Amino acid sequence: MSAESKLLVVTDLDGTLLSESYSWALAQPALDAMRRMGVPLVLNSSKTVMEMQALARELKTDAPIVAENGGLIAVPNHTSEAGEFDVELTGLSRDFILAKAHALRVEAGYQFAGFADWSADEVAQRTGLTLPQAEAAQARYATEPILWEDSEERLLEFQAALAASDIRILRGGRFLHLMGQADKADGSAAALKYFKKAMPDVVWKLVALGDSANDLAMLEAADIAVVIPRTDGGRIQPKAPRVIYAPYLSSHGWSEAMLKILNEHC
Q: What is the pTM of this model?
C-alpha cells in the first residue's frame, strides 16, 4: 500500500473478533499482518472503556477505543501514565440520561432499577460477573442498563417521555439500555476523524467488521463491510460500497476476511 493510502479497521468484539469463549487466537495471523503493515485497529463495542482496556493491551493496539455502542471514543493519553484515556462523548452523557430517567421515576412512579442504583456486589450478583468485572461494567459514561419491573404499557409511556430528551431504549438480553441517539457508526466516524487529524495527508479506507443488527450502521458507513456469520446460521445484509461475507465464524472468519483485504492492499 502506498504511503498516501491506508486501511483503518474498526471491529465489533463479541461474535466477531472474539469467539464464544472470548478468544481472539484464531485471528492472530491477520492481527500480525496488520501490525507489520501499520494498519490501525479500533475496537467498537457495547462494552465500557474499562472492560475493553485489557483486551486492547493484549492486542497491542494503542488506537482509540469506541465504547458503549458508539456513545464515546476514548483516546489514549500518551502524555500521562500508561493505560490512561481521554474520553470524548459522541452523544449524551450518562449523567444527563440518569437525571431524566430518575426524575421520571420519581414523578410517575415507574418501577425500574439500574447499575447506578446498585453496588458492585449487587451488579455481580445480578449479572453473574466477577466483582472486578462488575466494577468495570459500572464505569459508564454514556449508557445505563436497567431492569424494568413495570408493565409493558408503562414502558411505552416511559420510552416516549425519554424520547422527548433524545434518549432511546435499546433492548438487550436481560437489561434495557438507556442511551442517546449515537450508534457504532458515530463511534467509527469519531475514530476516522482522529486519524485524519493525526495524519492529514493520508487517504483512509475504512474497513468495518461485525455480525449483528447492532453493527449495521457501522458496516454501512464503511468502504468495506465484513459480515461475520452468526452461530445460528444467519447473516446481516448491510448496504456498503463493498461487502465481504466471511467464510467462518468469529475470529476464524475475521482473520480469513482480513487477510484477503490486506493481500489486496499490500
A: 0.90
CA distances to 4, 14, 21, 54, 200 from 196, rounded to whole Å, are 12, 27, 35, 26, 5
Same domain, 103 and 139: yes
pLDDT at 171: 85
Q: Say yes or no to pLDDT of 59 above 60.
A: yes
Boundaries of domain holding 234: 5-90+183-265
Three-state DSSP class for residue 116: helix
Question: Which of 179, 195, 228 delimits the end of a domain?
Answer: 179
Question: Half-sphere exposure of 163 toward its Cβ, with a 13 Å CA cutoff?
Answer: 8
Q: What is the CATH number of the domain that holds 144?
A: 3.30.980.20
Kindly state whether residues 210 and 145 are assigned to the same domain: no
CA–CA distance, 77 with 145 (Å, rounded to integer): 28
**Parallel/antiparallel/unpaired status of strands 72-76 and 203-210:** unpaired
DSSP string computed for 201-245? T-EEEEEEEE-SGGGHHHHHTSSEEEEPPPTTS-------SEEEE
d(CA 209, CA 211): 7
Final residue of a domain: which of 158, 179, 200? 179
* C-alpha span between 216 and 239 (Å, rounded): 9
52 with 71, same domain: the answer is: yes
Contact 138, 144 (CB under 8 A): no
Going by their DSSP bridges, the two strands 5-11 and 203-210 should be labelled as parallel
- Rounded to whole angstroms, the Cα distance separating 61 from 64 reads 9
Provide φ and ψ at 82, rounded to 5°.
Answer: -55, 140
Query: What pLDDT score does 1 carry?
Result: 47
Q: What is the CATH number of the domain that holds 214?
A: 3.40.50.1000
